[in-house]
Model the fold of this input.
Amino acid sequence: MLSRSALILTLGALMSVSAWAQAAPAETEVVNFTLDNGLEVVVIPDRRAPIVTHMVWYKVGSADELPGKSGIAHFLEHLMFKGTARHPAGEMDRLIAEVGGYTNAFTTKDVTVYHQTVPPDVLDEMMDFEADRMRGLVLTEDVIGAERDVVLEERRMRVEVSPQALLAEETAATAYQNHPYRIPTIGWLHEMEQLNRADAVAFYDRYYAPNNAVLVVSGDVEPEAVRELAEDTYGMVPRGPDLPPRIRPSEPQYDTARSVTLSDPRVGVPSFARGWITPSYRVAEPGEAEALDLLSEILGGGLRSRFYQEIVVKAGIASEVGASYDGGAYDPSSFTMFGVPQGAHSLEEVEAAIDAQVLRVIEDGVTPAELDAAKMRYVRSLIFARDEQASMANIYGSRLANDGTVDDVTQWPDRIRAVTPEQVQAVAARYLDPKVSVTGYLLPSDNGAQ
Amino acid sequence: MLSRSALILTLGALMSVSAWAQAAPAETEVVNFTLDNGLEVVVIPDRRAPIVTHMVWYKVGSADELPGKSGIAHFLEHLMFKGTARHPAGEMDRLIAEVGGYTNAFTTKDVTVYHQTVPPDVLDEMMDFEADRMRGLVLTEDVIGAERDVVLEERRMRVEVSPQALLAEETAATAYQNHPYRIPTIGWLHEMEQLNRADAVAFYDRYYAPNNAVLVVSGDVEPEAVRELAEDTYGMVPRGPDLPPRIRPSEPQYDTARSVTLSDPRVGVPSFARGWITPSYRVAEPGEAEALDLLSEILGGGLRSRFYQEIVVKAGIASEVGASYDGGAYDPSSFTMFGVPQGAHSLEEVEAAIDAQVLRVIEDGVTPAELDAAKMRYVRSLIFARDEQASMANIYGSRLANDGTVDDVTQWPDRIRAVTPEQVQAVAARYLDPKVSVTGYLLPSDNGAQ
Done:
């Protein structure tokens, strides 16, 4: 029920991909090496089934776009399927379909990722395809216009028709005053309409190269065989230009509480989401990101959380509540909580109840017993994630594409277990100041006038 | 009383310089020409007193800064006083002081301006100085650190100590989601601290050149003599690099009402300011900017305005009210209104009263009589502006630095007079939608905790 909230989309926009925060370290022997051209490779053997997941993570996302060019990272993700001199458009998709495989791609604020899950005997062809389009993409004028129409339609269907998505966009744009996380990954409509071939080629030439990517292969494979295949395919791709340090404009200090209100006749039940910008794992002081993850678990991480027990079960004033922390982002990202009133109760009551629970942690801390329970649930979720091959690949890819190491992943459960109640109270007090929060309100309205 | 409101600073941050919107066309013969190196020159003869105002307007402001380099435009304004090979630091200031003159400089979102008001017999020396530092500035490492401390102190004194200024900054950062007008001209503190010599030199080399500037000379001078002086001084400065079209990232469509709240123990009486982003003169459809100027005059332009008469005088619930329109910006900028409650009346009452007045214009329009009165007041203010030499120079410099022409200035009163009541109602309905406004609240608080 919690995860089905209409507000998930709202929260989503405040967050970049956080898949890695959901998953777990492998106990199998993970092999990690770098090719001469700078491509980092991770191999995660997993022999339970004769399948292999092959992913290329480019260290570029929408937060790396030039001002005025929003949407170019995601647009280029689409254009990457338009073919090369050696492999015309559609050839890879047909092969994957023939062998019963699966392929997809996605763009976040920080990364652009291409992946296939296939039988091991076509892994070499996947590598050949991906290596070929890493520098060899052919972009003609006629594919640009047609594909731009496709991404514009994607924006219309995902954002323009959805009050939740529109509110999410404008809440993110309000939460971030300086950092490019304020800009939607799909792009602002009026800027997407202007994207052209020159923009796409410039972005591709700059960011698509072996020295700006991480290759992850997870599944029924031998690491040494993967290394040989990688050298024969990706190893042939020339190194790209050296990129400057990946430093985006950072946020100023905040002094204000801000709100964003969308009133829309399509909204049935009111809801709200309140967020703060908090350090991600990459940039946090030691222990703080782990404490924020556990704080999120204790406050709003499911049926055992304080929000659910106190506000939904005992007080009966909310139908949905939750909290989430986006520790997987490259730069500081969001800690968010949300609520939906139950029956005749008002949104203000739910807000006050959630605020009271936050204040309770700030003032009185958490108990050792509930922290232990939260750690157990969290570490168990990491272990469960091992059970799915693609989620393991996701964990490693996301972590390594964000400057992390294999050890960061394998030591994660121990770092979670080391968090103290004092650390949880300290991050709540430090980061969840109501005077500097950003709140999005989604309200019903009878018509478009007010 | 209105103009002394504590909220002026709040409003100020939503606005870029609007000096030209306050002033008037000259009836004297204005002479306008361009030197071979691209420097545009305007001479405005005014022989009432033996003084001359000399201004150089560079077409660069804080909205032209690179992401992450906020404050560099203003920092460079300071550094421009650090001397050249021919004229060491302080020489110009000493000369101006000796002759009883006056000198200053300022930076806005759109322009950086240097001006002197002096006796005509030292105009040639002013021109020599300004032409010399247009490309000849010498920036050594040792002046950088010291002057950075000066601008950091300026930020502390102007912004950090002032709840009004802090609220103004964060309201602007909330109002603009994509356009660089969201960034304060003085810079974000953490980015100012990192500004260095390389940043300053790069900015100077790119933007300080005759082909990116407008020279304005107003006063007791002969246009032909000014032309000869200009050719002998500025004419010797080599043309700078060609700059690309000045296109900043523009705003997406808005769907939400947003608010920013600062609670501070230093605040005595609560107040609020509500703004919308509206087209400036440069980009508005014909007649819309003039109608917005008159709408601002009718709603909140002084003691005769609807806000003042209805809310302060008749209802007695506000002590201060006002409205302002920033038509002089390069890109779309703000239309703002504000209010302060009187006695025991609440901020909510004042807000509701102001909203009701706006709604009244949207629904019922304005009367021909009050529009005529507003036009008369507006045009008279343009005429009064002629009385001060420096404000005439300001009008022309600001207009020409924003891609305008001398005719734009001289025809302005006629364009104001041509506005119809229907046009005023139409811009109110089109631009002042309460569903997409941004409101800043400045509230007292007993302590720093809530």
In short: Residues 141-160 of chain B form the longest helix (20 residues).
